[in-house]
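Reading a protein record of the kind used here takes only a little practice. To see the layout at work, look at the sequence and tokens printed below.
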Amino acid sequence: MAFFLCGVAKAQTSSRPVPKNVEHPEDPFAGDYRPPVVKELGTSAGQVRVIGLLGARLAAGTQPVGQGTVEFMTLPILGLRLSSTLALGSEDPSSLFFAIGPSLHFFPYRRLDVSMFAEVGPARFALDHGAAWSPMLSTGASLDLAISGYWFLRLEGHLAWAVYDGGGEAVTLFDPGGTLGIGFGI
């Protein structure tokens, strides 16, 4: 019996013609609607951040360093960093470091952001007796301050670790350092 009633109701509703030119009343609340405004500050998903930094490493006295980093933000809180660091001084050992690793951002979409990172890659150490290559691990944290929708200042601290051949003996390098620079995010 229930199937019969459902079938009759369906037949009744499908046989009515649908009017073609029905005018709907105006929305009385249309003036109250505002589209959401996107926050342009801070780290966001899909962003590419190019950062140039200058600073110092403290392993062999104070030695100036230059660093270039490109960071691809896959999610608002998770990025992939590609970095290169060059020790600018002539102190032993001067080094060149290429690295890749993840970064974790704690305050995306805000003017002030804090992040942590870990990178690994090959490092070249220029020594008095020649050059030595070694894997290097670098971990650290950074503080970003957004200046505008595109530009930001970055303060970064890191600790790098490597073991390299220092003329026939293994030399362990613990290299704390800090950098300050400006970045551009698109």
